[in-house]
Amino acid sequence: MASLMFTDCSSSISSRLIHVNARSSGAILFRQHVGQLRLRSTASPRGCSLSIRCSSSATSVDGKAVAKTIRDEITIDVTRMKESIGVVPGLAVILVGDRKDSATYVRNKKKACESVGIKSIEVRLAEDCSEEQVLKSISCFNDDPSVHGILVQLPLPSHMDEQNILNAVSIEKDVDGFHPLNIGRLAMRGREPLFVPCTPKGCIELLHRYKVEIKGKRAVVIGRSNIVGMPAALLLQNPEEITREADIIIAAVGQPNMVRGSWIKPGAVIIDVGINPVDDPNAPRGYRLVGDVCYEEACQVASAITPVPGGVGPMTIAMLLSNTLISAKRIHNFE
Ligand SMILES: NC(=O)C1=CN([C@@H]2O[C@H](COP(=O)(O)OP(=O)(O)OC[C@H]3O[C@@H](n4cnc5c(N)ncnc54)[C@H](OP(=O)(O)O)[C@@H]3O)[C@@H](O)[C@H]2O)C=CC1
Ligand SMILES: Nc1nc(=O)c2c([nH]1)NC[C@@H]1CN(c3ccc(C(=O)N[C@@H](CCC(=O)O)C(=O)O)cc3)C=[N+]21
After folding, report:
1. What angle do CA 291, 293, 298 make, to 5 degrees?
2. Is-catalytic flag, 36?
3. For residue 309, is the peptide bond before it cis, meaning its omega torsion is within 30 degrees of 0?
4. ipTM for the complex?
5. Considering the domain 17-61+197-313 in this protein, what is its CATH number?
């Protein structure tokens, strides 16, 4: 799984950048929280710890701790729902092939479901199975009333049409928020998606819980994938310069340590989505995970930063649980 990449911040990558403008889906995600946020970039929620990996001023944003708080909140609701209407939220996960990283993610999602009382169902299909088989599983889960959320683990084997498969998931059960109708609604003003994709939702939730004001701030999203990046974002030429103007930076490029300390405006808040394995013979697994942002440099300049691991990753899973609960509540008309 590990790729040979730089293990420190010394390699620079010439790059392109996506700027969040007022019409991007990033801005629309932000819109949902505008008004609830207060400007206090140094504030941190209960239970937040300062990172011992970082001897400077930036608050280390503890995604692991916030995710735990959210799981506790979800557990209460799941229990209440079961006791009052006898419904247990259910999540179905479809895993195609045997990529080790995907298997690990799926296992973690399953464990997270168990920890909050959500029922999880897993379907494993062979790498060389047909697209029809995947579509058949999806269709079964679409019709199964005990399933409120359906997740097809990505990436899919290359012989499959990802769009075709994501289109097949019922939008009411699309807890990943990857169905084109849900993404389309997210990108449009005045239309609410049924689900917001878990990773961006987790990023915004972190800003929210750490009381970082979004309104009136300049934000930059680096990366433009369907999953994390911005459908309406603009491709720009000079990432360093624009990043330097940002008060909030969301990095989702999948390039280890690409964002250097010199790119960051003093006091900026950084959400690092990147999960990049780098070879490390001293690590138990032979590799370790680093983010897209050079953490050691960034924490000298930023006011708050999410570490990798322990930042956005646990939040993505917590948001998946949250979306599954939302789905069960919506389907059963439970407040
Ligand atoms: N923490 C979490 O919960 C999650 C973490 N991740 C991690 O986040 C990272 C991004 O994931 P994902 O969006 O799925 O990845 P993709 O590879 O699908 O997208 C990466 C995006 O970054 C752009 N990009 C790549 N290199 C550069 C560069 N040098 N300069 C500017 N833009 C660049 C690509 O541009 P182009 O469109 O031109 O190719 C693309 O839009 C990965 O490390 C992944 O492992 C992903 C999901 C969840
Ligand atoms: N349909 C689909 N939905 C996804 O949401 C989806 C996907 N496919 N494919 C892959 C990406 C990646 N992703 C992560 C989730 C959690 C962590 C996570 O919890 N990371 C831990 C570290 C884990 C470790 O140590 O290996 C952390 O950052 O602390 C990471 C990455 C979800 N994805």
Report:
1. 130
2. no
3. yes
4. 0.94
5. 3.40.50.720
